[in-house]
Each structure stands twice: as structure tokens, then as C-alpha cells.
Write a structure and sequence with these properties.
The complex is a heterodimer of chains A (336) and B (310). Chain A is of the alpha/beta class and 336 residues long. Chain A contains eleven helices and ten strands. Helix content of chain A is 40%, strand content 19%. In chain A, the strands form two sheets. Chain A has a seven-stranded parallel β-sheet. In chain A, α2 crosses α4 and α10 crosses α11. Chain A is globular, with a radius of gyration of 19 Å. Chain B is an alpha/beta fold and 310 residues long. Chain B is built from eleven helices and eleven strands. Chain B is globular. The chains are: A alpha/beta (336), B alpha/beta (310). Chains A and B meet through β2, β3 and β5 of A and α1, β4 and α11 of B.
């Protein structure tokens, strides 16, 4: 029996300064750099376990970034250069210039390390096909649908299959671009089902910050073969305590999930990853209790941060996660 | 040959990006140097109008954050792109405007013998993407913004700017729900005292269903992004004013075939018979990495030289 309000993280944590310095140092061998990455992964993993999360990973400590890292390992892409995200923040954007092909399981080593060193449930984050396509220039495929579905079928699904073959029990498909283009939701839904086809493991879809507060996603949720949708909410919610509709305005779309018949799990973003201000554990509790009230089954409401915490300092990030765990405990107590 | 221009925010080079992250004292002079390079690329491409590449603009609204009555708000996604802008909040009577755009342009870097073009947001897009906490209704807010932009345009005319492009992605994106009558009033308010040419640049959406109504607005020309409006859907209209076709896709690195694009554009102009014909990029070049943006400029120039239109 699953206890109410299981806790999980979403993905990336800020890399320790010492690791960044060490990796940049040309006088240090690759072997030693890999040892350092193992140490950092171990440190993240044990910290998350000690805080008390039920589902863990390594803070994506070996990945340079969620888009650039996988693209490096997929045939068919070439990096074009830097494109602005905002102000002086830029990301490296690639062009798709030929058929996309899966070369190697680029997450296998990190997964094996986490699996060998963790006693908790391990969840492997994998960047989804829709986001990979949406954040790239398409110079090869006739249209976006063809591009996205081929990435799903020929890259992401084989990647997941390899991870499952090596023992992965939970896969999180990261799709921050999911609802960016409301008119393309069918492509997104079809791509998710292509990824999951023939896969016998728990699939979680994580979407965030792509606009329209998931209204575009709602009609498609029932048709997507995923056990859970892990979504951001906290950044839109008030900081007042309570479980009424008036104060939990950031979670109002949960009612639409219910109205459309969605009865799967929800990974509930209960802390905002873009501010250093700390949510109280009582606020986390109330957000969880509100979700349970709307959705019905508290065992299907997972507590997590809105997104990866890589934009926060490590001390802020771990404190936020600690509050997720403590808030979930309070919510369980309130139910009992 | 027809006329051409590429307005909007251009991408920064990797060297400039690195400098912006270091709080380096050399940054202001580096912005100037890098702007000069891109102005020189526009000239190399033989574009008819030159413009400031706006490398020091963080987004199209940011200069207006200095207007009295406006404050800077939170980050918001810019339409369906992966680029974000800071929303402005109008919280008081607008005041102290007129030279906001002009003072944020490097006129001294622009060649004296070339015609200069400038872009700024259109009033509808400004209102749509920013927040009003002061004006009591949408039309008051829209007209206040239109008056502000009109004053900005007047000052630009005095600075000998020949063409002012009003960037209007919100009109194109929301084409199905735009109040055309209100829009017409706002745009004509901008144009009222402005002698420079005023163009409305429609991108990020299909405008075919409102194209005929847009043609009736008393401004000098329309500019249409051909990556989101199918040329065939508007090619049947006769255009009495000037027309610019955004034939070079600034959202994709794939390079246009000069001959094919020139033929498509020539055929369209032959049918539509605008008073004057131009081509441009589909939107700002900032959505491309630097090297690709420069290549697109060159393509734009080459296509413009290959188009036949009398």
C-alpha cells in the first residue's frame, strides 16, 4: 500500500562549485574528472535520501543541461550557436540536418551509479521528443509532427527501453515545451504514446512553464499512456494558508483534470523554484491537502518542487526539498 | 530589384554574450563595435535601409521601462518562442516620453548617405503584452500608448528616420479576435503627425482573414511574415499602399533558395501591384545564432536584387 503524499524531486540541482572548477581544469585527467562526478552524484543522492525523499536521482550532476546534453549524443543534430532565452541568458540551439538516430544509451552510466548507490526508488529524467524538436531548428523533416514522432520512436523510446532493460523502474519524460504551442497538443500526445509504446514501467511526464496553465493539456491527459503528470503550480499560487479555492488559486486547474476524468497520479509542485523565499511547511501541507480534496486519493498526489532547482543555491534547494518532505508529513498527520 | 530591410533586435556574437556576463568595463564600447559590424553586414548585403541592430535592447519593450508611469515586471514567454521578455506595468499617467526610442539608438554609427529605418512595438501589441494598472479601460490604455508611440515616431521623423516599422505580433497572433475598428483608430493616432513612412509588421500569425481590413488602415504599408501567412491566401488582393513581404525566415536556420524565393515574391507583387514593393526578414533576427543571422542578411539582399517588379 502506497502511503499518502509520496515525495520526489524533479531533476536538476546546481552543481557544486568545486566540481565546476575541477571539470574546467585541463590539467586534470578525464578519469579523475569522472571520479569527481561520481562523488558529486553520491553527495546529491545521499543528501536527498537523508532529507527523506521517497523517490530520488543524482541532481543530473553529469549533464551540462537538459537539451544540450542529449543532443550531443543523437545523430542528425548539429549545434548552430547561441540563442537568447532572456536578457543575457542564452542556450545552445541545434539544427536537425539529417535523420535522427539513437547511437548509445547516454544516461546508462549515471543510472547504474545511482541504482548501485541508492536504497530508494530511482526515477530517471529523460528529455522528451517534443521539447528536443521544439528547441531545435528543423531543416530536414517535412514538418514538426514527422520530426517529433521520429525522435519519439527512434531515439527516446530506445533510450527508455535500454534503461528499463538495466533495471529502471521509473522514467520521467521532461517536456518543458509541452504546452507552448496549444495547436500542437495532438503531436505532443502522440509523441508521448510513441515513447511509451511497449514499455512496461512507470512513466511520468513533467511539464512546466509553457503557458496557458495546462488548459491545452487537459483534454489530452486521459489519452496519454503515463502513470503521472508532474507539473508546476506553486509559482502561481498565493502564500496564504488554507485549503479553500480562494487561497489555492494556483491549483484551480486540478478541477479541470478531474472534470475531464483524469484519475492518474499528479506530481504536485508545492514549492516555487524561482524564488529564494521559503514556503512554510504548513503552506506545503495545505497545497497537498487541497489537491487531495480535489483529486480524491492522497496516494496519487506526489509532493515535489515545481521543477528542477538548478537556479537556486544548493543550500536553498535542499531547504526547499526539506520543506516538501516535512509538509507532506504534516499533510499525512492531518489526514490521520 | 526591389527595396529591402531587416529591422528588429539582432543576435549578439558569442564574444559579446561572454562580455555581457562579466560586468566588463569594455561592454559599452563593445556594443558599439559589434553594432558597427552588423551595420556593415547590412551594407554588404546592399539592403536599402540601414538600422541599429539593437544589440543592447534586452527586448522590444525594455527602453519604455524608463517612461514615467511605467515599471518593470516579471519575465513572460514571448508568444510561442523559447525567448522571454519582461512585462511592463503601467501604473500611472504616462509622462516624459518622446525620445525614448531615439535615445536608445546609435544614430552616430549609421552611414549618413543611407536611409534609416527604425522599429518599435505597435500600440495593440504593447497593450496586449504588458499590464495596465492605471487606465480605466482598454481603449483609454490603448490610446495613451498610441499617443506615446506617435510622439516617439514624430521625434524619429525629426531625426530623419525614413521608415518606422511598428512590430505587431499580437495582431497577427490574435487575428481572429482583434477589434479592427479600435486598432485602426490607434494606428491612425500613431501616424497622425508623422511624416516618415509607417509600416505595420505582422508576424507570428496568419493574417489572411483580416488582410483586406488591414489594407484600409491609413498607414503607409503592411509587412507580412510569409512563414505564418500563406502567400497564396493574400496574393489575390490588390494593394494600393506599399507592401513588404517577410520572405526570409528568421525563425529557421534553413537557407532560402534565392531564385525560387525571388520568383515567388515577384509573382505575388505582379498580382498585388503595391505602390512600392519591399522584402524583409519574417521577424527579428535574434531568434537565430549570429552567424546564421548574417547569412540570412546576405540571402535577403540577394533575393531583393533578383526580384523583378516595375
Amino acid at each position: 500500500m502506497i502511503r499518502p503524499f509520496p515525495t520526489q524531486e524533479i531533476g536538476s540541482l546546481k552543481k557544486p562549485e568545486w566540481l565546476l572548477e575541477l571539470v574546467k581544469n585541463e590539467n586534470i585527467s578525464n578519469e579523475d574528472k569522472n571520479k569527481a562526478r561520481n562523488d558529486a552524484a553520491y553527495l546529491n543522492l545521499k543528501t536527498l535520501e537523508d532529507i527523506g525523499l521517497d523517490v530520488v536521482y543524482d541532481g543530473e550532476v553529469r549533464r551540462v543541461e537538459m537539451y544540450e546534453y542529449p543532443v550531443r549524443y543523437i545523430d542528425g543534430f548539429e549545434f548552430a550557436g547561441l540563442v537568447r532565452s532572456w536578457d543575457n541568458k542564452y542556450y545552445k540551439k541545434a539544427r536537425c540536418v539529417s535523420k535522427v538516430t539513437y547511437k548509445t544509451d547516454f544516461h546508462l552510466d549515471e543510472f547504474k551509479f545511482v541504482k548501485d548507490n541508492s536504497k530508494k526508488i530511482v526515477k530517471v529524467p529523460v528529455t522528451g521528443p517534443y521539447t528536443l524538436a521544439d528547441w531545435s531548428y528543423n531543416e530536414f523533416y517535412r514538418n514538426k509532427e514527422e520530426f517529433v514522432l521520429e525522435l519519439a520512436r527512434d531515439v527516446v523510446r530506445p533510450l527508455i527501453q535500454d534503461l528499463v532493460r538495466h533495471g529502471a523502474q521509473v522514467i520521467q519524460i521532461d517536456e518543458p515545451a509541452a504546452t507552448t504551442h496549444p495547436a500542437e497538443m495532438k503531436i505532443f500526445a502522440d509523441a508521448m504514446n510513441e515513447c511509451a509504446k511497449g514499455i512496461d514501467t512507470k512513466i511520468i511526464i513533467h511539464a512546466c512553464y509553457s503557458g496557458n496553465e495546462y488548459q491545452a493539456l487537459v483534454p489530452y491527459m486521459m489519452g496519454i499512456k503515463a502513470t503521472q503528470f508532474a507539473l508546476e503550480f506553486a509559482n502561481r499560487d498565493s502564500w496564504k494558508l488554507g485549503v479553500g479555492d480562494d487561497v489555492r488559486n494556483g491549483y484551480s486547474v486540478l478541477k479541470d483534470f478531474r472534470k475531464h476524468g483524469y484519475n492518474g497520479e499528479i506530481g504536485l509542485g508545492v514549492v516555487d523554484v524561482h524564488v529564494d523565499d521559503m514556503e512554510s511547511v504548513e503552506l506545503v501541507r495545505d497545497r497537498l491537502l487541497y489537491a487531495a480534496k480535489v483529486l480524491g486519493d492522497p496516494a496519487k498526489v506526489y509532493a515535489n518542487p515545481d521543477c528542477g532547482l538548478r537556479t537556486r543555491t544548493r543550500s536553498v534547494a535542499f531547504e526547499k526539498i526539506r520543506r516538501v518532505v516535512k509538509g507532506a508529513e504534516l499533510a499525512r498527520e492531518a489526514l490521520s | 530589384m526591389i527595396k529591402s530591410f531587416a529591422l528588429g533586435i539582432y543576435p549578439r556574437s558569442e564574444k559579446l554574450i561572454a562580455t555581457t556576463r562579466k560586468n566588463d568595463k569594455k561592454l559599452p564600447s563593445m556594443f558599439q563595435t559589434e553594432k558597427k559590424k552588423l551595420i556593415s553586414e547590412q551594407q554588404k548585403a546592399k539592403l536599402s535601409y540601414v538600422c541599429d541592430p539593437l544589440l543592447d535592447w534586452n527586448d522590444m519593450f525594455r527602453p519604455f521601462a524608463h517612461v514615467k508611469g511605467i515599471m518593470l515586471g516579471a519575465l513572460n514567454r514571448f508568444f510561442e518562442t523559447n525567448t522571454f521578455y519582461r512585462k511592463l506595468i503601467v501604473n500611472d499617467q504616462l509622462n516624459g516620453y518622446g525620445s525614448v526610442v531615439k535615445s536608445n539608438l546609435a544614430f552616430s554609427l549609421l552611414p549618413k548617405k543611407k536611409d534609416v529605418a527604425v522599429c518599435m512595438p505597435d500600440p495593440y501589441t504593447f497593450v496586449d503584452l504588458n499590464e495596465n494598472k492605471f487606465y480605466k479601460n482598454r481603449s483609454d490604455y490603448l490610446f495613451a500608448i498610441a499617443d506615446m508611440l506617435g510622439k516617439e515616431a514624430e521625434i524619429l521623423t525629426k531625426a530623419k528616420v525614413k521608415l518606422i516599422q511598428l512590430n505587431a505580433p499580437s495582431i497577427a497572433y490574435n487575428a481572429g479576435s482583434v477589434d479592427i475598428s479600435l486598432l485602426r483608430d490607434a494606428l491612425e493616432r500613431v501616424k497622425r503627425n508623422v511624416k516618415s513612412k509607417v509600416y505595420l509588421h505582422l508576424y507570428f500569425g496568419n493574417v489572411s482573414k483580416i488582410f483586406s481590413k488591414l489594407l484600409d488602415i491609413k498607414i503607409d504599408g503592411l509587412s507580412i511574415d510569409l512563414s505564418t501567412t500563406d502567400l497564396n491566401s493574400i496574393a489575390g488582393y490588390k494593394v494600393d499602399n506599399e507592401l513588404c513581404l517577410g520572405a526570409v525566415d528568421a525563425m529557421n536556420t534553413k537557407m532560402e533558395n534565392v531564385k525560387d524565393t525571388a520568383k515567388t515574391v515577384s509573382d505575388a507583387f505582379d498580382t498585388m501591384e503595391p505602390k512600392e514593393a519591399y522584402i524583409s526578414t519574417s521577424c527579428d533576427l535574434e531568434f537565430l545564432p549570429y552567424e546564421f543571422a548574417v547569412k540570412k542578411l546576405s540571402k535577403l539582399g540577394a533575393i531583393a536584387r533578383s526580384v523583378r517588379y516595375d
